[in-house]
Write a structure and sequence with these properties.
This protein is an alpha+beta fold. Helices cover 52% and strands 19% of the residues. The chain has a 3-stranded antiparallel beta sheet with strand order 1-4-5.
Length: 162
């Protein structure tokens, strides 16, 4: 009987994969895993590059905010300057701020926007002909954007109808 069992084992087709098929399957699995890891790594590098770029863009924000305080003082001094010498310094400061992507938030002729403006008071007067609330604002303190991001909102007084 043992001979019969041995003969039937050799004549039956084997259902187990050959060693070559196992190796091919394993190699394909390893290759797919490597491709996924490579794609993840490339995405990680892109995300880190974006994060670093954002960090560099706004790394100087604190220094810019301190410089803006100086600009505020200069603006006040320019109002009282008789010979106009401070105006030249103000222009240089403004150009320096522009170099770093800093610009003033417009107030005159604009409607109140809570994302850009901070209401600190109201003034009595007539609402403009358009009847829109928030038009006719008075700037109390300048606001600034740095590359499109508000770094200091403009403080304004809004107008009410009296």
């Amino acid at each position: 009987m043992t001979e019969e069992k041995q003969q039937t084992k050799t004549t039956e087709p084997t259902t187990e994969p050959s060693e070559l098929e196992v190796c091919k399957k394993q190699a394909e699995e390893y290759l797919n895993n490597w491709k996924r890891e490579r794609a993840d790594f490339i995405n990680y590098k892109k995300d880190e590059a974006k994060r670093l770029e954002e960090f560099v863009k706004f790394a100087n924000e604190e220094i810019i905010l301190e410089a803006i305080e100086l600009v505020d003082d200069l603006e006040e001094a320019v109002k009282h300057d008789k010979d106009g010498g401070l105006k030249q310094i103000m222009v240089k400061f403004t150009n320096w701020l522009k170099k770093y992507g800093v610009e003033k938030i417009p107030v005159v002729g604009e409607k109140f926007n809570p994302e850009l403006h901070e209401a600190v008071g109201v003034k009595a007067g007539r609402i403009p002909a358009s009847g829109e609330w928030g038009e006719g604002m008075i700037e109390v303190r300048s606001g600034y954007l740095m590359r499109g991001k508000v770094i200091r909102p403009a403080r304004v007084k809004t107008q009410i109808n009296k």
